[in-house]
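Exercise 7.
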Amino acid sequence: QVQLVESGGGLVQTGGSLRLSCATSGLTFSLKAMAWFRQVQGKEREFVAAISRSGSNTDYADFVKGRFTISRDNAKTTVYLQMNSLQPEDTAVYFCAAGGWSSVLPRQYDYWGQGTQVTVSS
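Solution. The predicted structure, written as tokens, is:
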């Protein structure tokens, strides 16, 4: 059974930091590209960041470059998203996803977590 479980979300003040984790099971984790997406109520799910199988290549949405960092620990089969300098517009449900290769398109990912809420207050 494939499972992706996000954690680390919560309420943070503008300018603060959070680290999201996505623990996986049932995957050949080292053969999967991993990604983070986020979604605001009434809006389309949008790409945040992706990381290649080995972790050697990363990709970021323009609106998070310089603030967010994606990383992975293949031994722990876990992917992380370090979020710094958080702004109110970062408020969303954050999802992790696994796929055969990195993509900005949600449909290219095979497995998804349930999401974790991040709320940034001013």
